[in-house]
Design brief:
With about 475 residues, this protein is mainly β. It has 3 domains: about 100 residues, no CATH class; about 190 residues, Immunoglobulin-like, CATH 2.60.40; about 140 residues, Galactose-binding domain-like (Jelly Rolls, Sandwich), CATH 2.60.120. The protein is about 10% helix and about 30% strand. The chain is built from 4 helices and 29 strands. The chain is globular, with a radius of gyration of 24 Å. The chain starts with 6 loop residues before the first helix and ends in a 7-residue tail after the last strand. The protein binds calcium ion (CA).
Length: about 475
Amino acid sequence: MRVLASPSRRTAAALSVALAAAFTVAAGPADPAVAAVAAVTDGSARFDVLTPTLIRMQYAGDGAFTDATTFNVVNRSFTPPAYTTSVTADGYREIRTSALTLRYKQNSGPFTAANLSVAITATGATARPVYPSYCAASTACEAENALFTGGVTPAYDHQGYTGSGFAGGYEGAGSGLQYDVDVPTAGTWRLAVRYANAVGSDNQSATRTLTAHVNGATGPRFSLPPTSSWDTWATGSVTVSLRAGVNAITVNQDAADSGRVNVDSLAVMPGGSTNYPSPATDLRTTGYGAGPASQLGGWYRSLDNLPGGLPDANALHPGVLNRGGWYLLDDTRTALLSTSHTVSDRPGHGAQPYQDGYFFGYGQNYKQALADLNALTGPANLLPQTAYGVWFSRFWGYSTADYQNTLLPAFRRNFTPLDWLVVDTDWKKPVEWDGWNWNTDLFPDPQAFLTWTKQMNLDTSFNAVSYTH
Ligand SMILES: [Ca+2]
């Protein structure tokens, strides 16, 4: 199980929030009413050719395509590149740029590796991208790519999982993961999970339970017997009644559930089936994208649980660059962003499937990939000069008096410069891990504290850990 409140986690979280604070001066988003450039609409599919190496691929079963700015994508005002399009004799929509040839089987439904491919001219490689947010019947949908509620988070600290990790953190009611699952027919289906269940946070090994919810209605309860270790995975299933098309399925820890399991993936299969599907793809997937596993670098959330040092390359979350020469940025779930920097949910599509993603097909032209990413998602902001100075961060519940009377005087007394004060999560009350209210036991006059830090020429940031993701 994941340890949720270790000191090391707190320190790392403080660091991540401090960095976030340093990045908050962002360029304003482009006009959200950005016109799609060079769009090719074919049935429920729409392709926007943004550059010779970048194509937006949207599928809307209800025809409701989105043109608004999203939290990821702040610019689509590209100069339309030259391209051609036609339909082949065998029923494929083809789009050809100077760098790519995209093929989509007409009227074949949402984009999958079976009906969509993109040939990369420079290398001769053919990409078959998948959308990690899209969960079709009879496929294993990786839990780490789901939407999360409560304490559930992606985790990687055990072995034997498929995909890029699993979902951990079933440690309280309201914790869960959610997938929109697309099934061809209404009726009875088998909902299965691949899970691990060893000695839990209560030091017990016991059969645990979770509850399925379907389209907002509470459904049957999973009974999940113990597995021999956290590295050993088994499957458990329940029977659910689904509508044709997309169903919102949640695997939740309800108040009566014991939780304390890890979930690797889920799958919806015909009612009479007994098998569990193999991993749907050998691509490297996350909740926000998919590409060949030969990634070049990446990022890591924190340095917690890494006794052996830095993570190896396989543990890094991928970016757009890999030796395969392509990447699919899955923007399907990203919130919409207004010009006034407020966010809102994507519009719903009912039982109709929806996908929104960006295909980067750069071959070995890595600079082009980064240029496309930069233009699409906005430039990275430069860090303020003070971020390169000396920071202080410690996971203690320091008070205003501690900072004023002990800490800063110690820095001054030892002739040690200090540029940035990172105040850890204890600044909040009544719950130190959640919420936004000051702990006035430690900070009796918050504004006076902030005024004092300014007078002392200290930049400040505050650990804003939240378990509601
Ligand atoms: Ca997994």
